[in-house]
């Protein structure tokens, strides 16, 4: 089924002027959230832009140019990246990201061989929803510390100026999302960051020296294993990233369903969920090998598709090329680095809350009955273990903590407690798209 109301269908190529404008719109839609992840985690925003663009191009190739999806930085990996960086070796996070990408690849192979029923059996909404909530709620403290102290650390000094700018940024972002229409309603994060940046500059929190001194063209600060660093394989860190990878896979299925409904084609069947998950995995592996955060399909860009009815894969590819180019413009990378942390904290308050709320939304839309003791127990255990930061110390060098432990606990409870729904019931959602 093809949506006849499409302005440009998947295979259609726009005229050059329209092509540039439409691709730039997708760049703006993903820009704020994509650079926010590296700014929070200490990775390079320029590298994130490059790996986002390159990952999207790889995704297009792997999915045979059939799925108009853009890939940006994943929020699900913020906590594991911060935990890895806290050890003093930020490169541990990149090793973890590599193994997270491998999880996608393995799942893709299993779906191709066994079908999708096994995945839905271990990751039903009653497990995925609370784990997504843990991601947002677990980062709440980071957002508040960024907003009030100008750092993500809990031991910073409170500043009324920082918090005021953060609240102003938050207000502009919320106002843009709620009250503005058309294009600006699609890029509230970008508008909020720009407004907060201007306010920060007025209050003397922005130093433009780095921008003035930066070259126009500059190679991003790539981190390549065995070239710029020797990778260290830490079991606890790797396990945390493997557990974290479970959630974006589930979110990916949801994104593909929404995208299928928007475009009017069942992408879960053709080119197939195995190919789309493989595309995510290969993009994440590429990002890890260059020093960028893991990639995932972006809901912001799906929103742009829904509003514009422009489904052209050429437009998505154009946005990817623009992101690649922006990553090599030194002035832009320097400008991003001058954004006050408090500004990003204001945006993070909303974004992390939305992540938590989206987990609740998943359970509501999937009609998870929390009146049933089985479901109530699973959700409760996941939330308390994840938000409370429970830890199992396996050995001196290996621990299972936070979100990783919460995800594992949820999966185990779902498999062992009686009354588990058959996977076939969840598979009906695929048939509804045909």
Largest sheet: 2 strands, antiparallel
What's the N-to-C terminus distance? 8 Å
Low-confidence sequence ranges: none
SSE succession: HHEHHHHHHHHHHHEHHHHHEEHH
Radius of gyration: 21 Å
How many strands? Answer: 4
The averaged pLDDT comes out at: 84
Global structural class: mainly alpha
Total count of helical runs of at least 4 residues: 20
Helix coverage percent:
55-70%
Strand order of the largest sheet: 1-2
Q: Rough shape?
A: globular
- Strand composition percent: under 5%
Can you lay out the helices and strands and say which pair or pack?
Layout: H1 16-41, H2 45-62, E1 71-73, H3 78-85, H4 91-114, H5 117-122, H6 125-138, H7 140-149, H8 160-179, H9 182-186, H10 188-202, H11 209-213, H12 235-263, H13 268-290, E2 295-297, H14 299-308, H15 313-327, H16 330-337, H17 341-365, H18 373-388, E3 391-395, E4 398-401, H19 402-416, H20 423-431
Antiparallel strand pairs: 1-2, 3-4
Write a short abstract of this structure:
This protein is mainly α and 434 residues long.
Describe the structure in your own words:
Helix 3 packs antiparallel against helix 12 (235-263) and helix 12 (235-263) packs antiparallel against helix 13 (268-290). By secondary structure, this protein is mostly helical. The longest helix has 29 residues, at 235-263. The model has no long low-confidence stretch (mean pLDDT 84). The strands form 2 sheets. Strands 1-2 form a two-stranded antiparallel ribbon. It has a two-stranded antiparallel sheet with strand order 3-4. 69% of the residues lie in helices and 3% in strands. A hairpin with a 2-residue loop joins strand 3 and strand 4 (398-401).
């Amino acid at each position: 089924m093809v949506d006849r109301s499409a302005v440009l269908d998947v295979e259609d190529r726009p005229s050059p002027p329209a092509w540039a404008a439409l691709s730039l719109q997708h760049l703006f839609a993903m820009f704020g959230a994509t650079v926010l992840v590296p700014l929070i985690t200490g990775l390079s925003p320029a590298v994130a832009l490059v790996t986002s663009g390159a990952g999207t191009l790889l995704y297009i190739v792997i999915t045979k140019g059939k799925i108009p999806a853009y890939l940006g930085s994943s929020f699900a990996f913020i906590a594991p990246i911060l935990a890895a960086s806290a050890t003093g070796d930020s490169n541990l996070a990149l090793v973890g990201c590599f193994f997270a990408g491998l999880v996608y690849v393995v799942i893709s192979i299993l779906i191709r061989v066994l079908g999708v029923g096994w995945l839905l059996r271990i990751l039903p909404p009653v497990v995925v929803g609370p784990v997504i909530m843990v991601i947002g709620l677990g980062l709440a403290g980071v957002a508040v510390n960024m907003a009030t102290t100008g750092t993500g650390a809990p031991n910073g000094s409170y500043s009324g100026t920082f918090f005021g700018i953060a609240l102003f940024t938050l207000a502009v972002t919320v106002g843009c999302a709620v009250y503005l229409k058309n294009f600006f309603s699609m890029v509230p994060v970008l508008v909020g960051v720009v407004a907060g940046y201007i306010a920060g500059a007025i209050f003397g929190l922005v130093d433009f020296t780095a921008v003035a001194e930066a070259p126009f063209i500059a190679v991003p600060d790539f981190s390549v294993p065995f070239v710029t660093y020797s990778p260290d394989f830490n079991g606890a860190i790797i396990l945390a990233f493997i557990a974290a990878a479970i959630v974006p896979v589930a979110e990916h299925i949801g994104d593909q369903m929404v995208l299928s409904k928007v475009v009017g084609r069942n992408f879960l069947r053709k080119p197939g969920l195995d190919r789309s998950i493989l595309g995510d995995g290969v993009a994440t592996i590429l990002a890890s090998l260059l020093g960028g955060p893991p990639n995932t399909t972006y809901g912001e860009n799906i929103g742009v598709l829904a509003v514009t009815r422009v489904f052209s894969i050429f437009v998505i590819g154009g946005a990817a090329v623009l992101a690649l180019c922006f990553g090599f413009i030194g002035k832009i990378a320097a400008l991003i680095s001058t954004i006050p942390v408090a500004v990003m904290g204001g945006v993070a308050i909303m974004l992390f809350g939305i992540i938590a709320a989206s987990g609740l939304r998943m359970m509501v839309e999937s009609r998870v009955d929390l009146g049933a003791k089985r479901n109530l127990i699973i959700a409760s255990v996941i939330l308390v273990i994840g938000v409370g930061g429970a830890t199992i110390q396996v050995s001196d060098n290996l621990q299972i903590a936070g979100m990783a432990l919460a995800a594992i606990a949820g999966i185990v409870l779902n498999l062992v407690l009686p009354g588990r729904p058959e996977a076939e019931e969840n598979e009906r959602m695929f048939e509804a798209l045909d």
